[in-house]
Model the fold of this input.
Amino acid sequence: PDVLRVTPAYKALRKCGEAFRHNRDLHHESKQSEEISSFWSHSWHGNSWQKMLTLMVLYNGLPSILCGTCAALIPMALFSLGFLPGLVRVEGEQVLFSMWSLVTGFFVAIATFVLWRPRQAVFFDRICISEDNPRLKLSAILSLAGMLKKSREMLVLWDPSWSDRLWCLFELAAFLKCKTAQQSQQVLIMRPTFIGSVSLAGFFSSFAVMLAIMIFMTFSIESP
Done:
């Protein structure tokens, strides 16, 4: 039980995923637990930034979208009630539109995405396995199968190097063996690490297109 340790997900993601990029002992950031919410399996040969962005999308993406949407409803209501100014949509008519909701929702979503602190109890090797204490490190490695047995889900951050790492394949095999032996509801989730950058690119592109359309409409109406 003393080697079964977890850490809140936000501790692995804070400071732009510092734990993925710097090799220092962070064992003090973990705590003992009887169960692991999510076991993170990844290759240290993969791109650290891509892994970090993918995890942020998986853990912070939904809260950021919900907060951004709720925030966008506030200026929409204020604009509808006449408390916020608008721009003319149809020349010569009192038909107005505004960018309040778009801009507010965008910035609130970005702020939530960066500042949200997911607290799911996860196993992340850099934090949950001691780097400086050889005895604790060996005990954790020898107890890996037991950790997987106590994990509700296994999240595989897949990249081309993951399949070449024998240790990663061992983690997968051990998890599947435990799942079959226990006939449990353990869940295996595989996500390619490019999901994070692709999702963010799509989000920023959508905002840029919508903003460009609104600006174009504004100048086309004002032009003689």
Strands lie at 5-8, 31-32, 38-41, 87-90, 95-97, 121-123, 153-158, 187-192. The chain has a mean pLDDT of 89. The CA atoms of residues 60 and 116 lie 6 Å apart.
